[in-house]
Amino acid sequence: MSIDLARRATAECLGTAFLLAVVIGSGIMGERLAGGNVAIALLANTLATGAGLVTLILTFGSISGAHFNPAVSLADATQGGLPWRDVPVYILAQIAGAFAGVAVAHVMFGEPVFFASTHVREGSAQLVSEFVATFGLLATIWGTVRTRPTAVPFAVGAYITSAYWFTSSTSFANPAVTLARAASNTFAGIRPADAPGFIVAQLLGATAATAMFAWLVPSLPKVASRVVEQRRAEQRQEDAA
Amino acid sequence: MSIDLARRATAECLGTAFLLAVVIGSGIMGERLAGGNVAIALLANTLATGAGLVTLILTFGSISGAHFNPAVSLADATQGGLPWRDVPVYILAQIAGAFAGVAVAHVMFGEPVFFASTHVREGSAQLVSEFVATFGLLATIWGTVRTRPTAVPFAVGAYITSAYWFTSSTSFANPAVTLARAASNTFAGIRPADAPGFIVAQLLGATAATAMFAWLVPSLPKVASRVVEQRRAEQRQEDAA
Amino acid sequence: MSIDLARRATAECLGTAFLLAVVIGSGIMGERLAGGNVAIALLANTLATGAGLVTLILTFGSISGAHFNPAVSLADATQGGLPWRDVPVYILAQIAGAFAGVAVAHVMFGEPVFFASTHVREGSAQLVSEFVATFGLLATIWGTVRTRPTAVPFAVGAYITSAYWFTSSTSFANPAVTLARAASNTFAGIRPADAPGFIVAQLLGATAATAMFAWLVPSLPKVASRVVEQRRAEQRQEDAA
Amino acid sequence: MSIDLARRATAECLGTAFLLAVVIGSGIMGERLAGGNVAIALLANTLATGAGLVTLILTFGSISGAHFNPAVSLADATQGGLPWRDVPVYILAQIAGAFAGVAVAHVMFGEPVFFASTHVREGSAQLVSEFVATFGLLATIWGTVRTRPTAVPFAVGAYITSAYWFTSSTSFANPAVTLARAASNTFAGIRPADAPGFIVAQLLGATAATAMFAWLVPSLPKVASRVVEQRRAEQRQEDAA
């Protein structure tokens, strides 16, 4: 891997910070302006998050892989992608970035730096939603990274745009995001007591999708280890152009 | 064809399940949050479905072709694409997946697993709409798969985004989707009695578009049989990069 | 030019018909569902039209060039693109298709086949808008067709998405579309008496943009004549893949 | 650089004029039609601006680089991209274009050519927002221009779509845009007294992002100077196709 870990961890931290600033910030803005219509607030939140993800993955993808998500880093490691020794650093960087992003969003909107959410998100329907949401996210990644790596940013952005609406939990699908959203008593928050269940469901969903696609695409393990190489090759190709 | 039928059928089943989860789930969410404004509910439903289709076709396209639609599988077979012996398996996988997706959406939103729709969709305007909607869908596929295969996911996603609004039926354009939506008494449902007419109109539309494009693009039949080969070649090319 | 005129004219006719079905149909649907909020109706109309244009240009671009617009065909001819002898056929096909599309939309929504619009669109602000709208459309085409031909469908779709909102006329920017919309007394209609002024402003805007870009991009005339060749080369390249 | 400065400056002027026409025009249209719901007005404004940016960068990128923004031109010059001697011309062209665009928007909507805004945008939350907004914009540019130059128009369009909602200032992120919006007492305006603070915050954000990415992507300075070369090479490649 040609880029050193300090730079890659910084990219993960910065990217996850922006992701949370987008999720929390656009949730606050949407709710403030929507005049009580929750669908309009969520449409704004969705548009900002989907478009933001496209940008962030395009921006940081060639540096760190643009995981921004412990479930993705872990799944990638199980398939021989990210080296296991880098996984703890990636996850810490993601969690630190997520909380930093929440703080920045709060400052931009004149809210307290952190304040625990009281937004109840409990019950089996929500847990099934998080399982499905994270299954779909990992399916999207495993289904595209092999055959169409340049389409990954658009596939993931489109997936989350869709998933905000087809799951009753609005698809957190990310343990670092879940932890940080517990520290925001705003539109996109989640009561801290509800976070652990979300995270368990997310990890189960990620595991199931990774297992399914390891069978569905037999060459996946071998290919996963080559993704970084592919990225570097694409880059060389574009540099040569 | 390098990928065995079991994997391709699984991809069709899984992809169609996600498609229905998106259509039904985002319909429920949109209606619950929109405060009675049907246009806002349909905007949410449209955004989720269009973006979801982009993701699903990118994810499953290189495995099974990402038909998710008996009308597409049949049309593809008539042009020498999908082998006729695989058609029944594809269609069964699509229908099974469609019902599974409806069930998952219902569980995610705390609704009964299946319950027959009472949403009336009848009359000649609706039937003309389904003919036009499916004509347009197949035109989009035949018009892009030949010259710009990598643009197909975006073309189809954009087409359905548009078609939800320019037809009075909101463009089902898919017999498997029509059957499964009859089992959901929610925003996106259709009364079972209205489903057969929709399916007939869809098959007629698909047939007309396929005939039109067989003339419009004289090399289509020959090309269609090469689509899978093209996909494999694209993949080799990206692997080599 | 390898594709015969009959097929190209059919593609222009069919594509323009779909374009008008999208514009008129989504306008009717938007207005019916929006509960009196014109912004929501126009958002739906915009989303459908922008996405529809992406699809239609992807679908028909490699057959006829996907002009769907007399102003584009004329401008292309002045720069050595479309042969002058084909221009009248293109324009007739576009106008016939436009009226057919209006009729299909009306049938799909249970309206009279044709009925003159009473939607007043007059005054200098509207005429300036049509000049600017068509200037921008031709600028988009001339600015992208030369350097990034595969991006043209997305550039034009995004342009119209934007132009529906930044001009007071909602950017007709197309003489064939203007004529046909005069035959629809619905959301997207225009009073027949206001159509001639719109068309004059459109042709002036197209002329100004073409002159500007002939200077801005000195190689444009020479390049324009090669656009069809480029398209065929792209196709060969993809076929070879 | 093969394109002379007169043409490049014209492209910057024309592109920035269209950008402002989009921002101001769609703001007016959105506010007029939204029936008092500010979220709906801002959704329309966002959709038009994001889509407009995609179009404008695709259209003018290969001529002038499509900066449309003094902060971008300055940052590019510090990294060895735009020659310093061209910077003043670029900035003057951008400011002149911005005011022209505001005037055109006002004429299209029957407003006075210029009239000072009374829209108060003050306080530290707004200034932090502009710092973050411009940091993100430059991060997006530096993160994509190196590895995926053809994705820049989509990355920037998606970024601004997101940033309109996740910052409390709605992300001006552009000194020329800020000055010109002070001359429009409409939805998108800013009180002249608040403009200087915005511009300082923007320049600080641009500086911080440029420094961060100079470290994060060690080859950036060397690469930046080759961006124009890359663009020309891409063009030759497409011409050859």
Question: Main attributes?
Answer:
disordered C terminus, homotetramer, 241 residues, mainly alpha, 0% strand
Q: In a nutshell, what does this entry contain?
A:
With 241 residues, chain A is mostly helical.
From N to C, what is the helix and strand string of chain A? HHHHHHHHHH
Strand content of chain A: under 5%
What's the β-strand tally of chain A? 0
Oligomer: homotetramer
Radius of gyration of chain A equals: 17 Å
* End-to-end separation of chain A: 23 Å
Point out poorly predicted stretches of chain A.
225-241
Q: Using CB atoms under 8 Å apart, which protein chain pair has the greatest interface?
A: A-D, 48 and 46 residues
Query: Could you report the average pLDDT of chain A, rounded to the nearest whole number?
Result: 92
Instruction: Give the overall silhouette of chain A.
Output: globular
Helical segment count of chain A: 10
Query: For the report, how would you describe the main beta sheet of chain A?
Result: none
* Proportion of helical residues of chain A: over 70%
Q: Would you tell me the structural class of the helices and strands of chain A?
A: mainly alpha
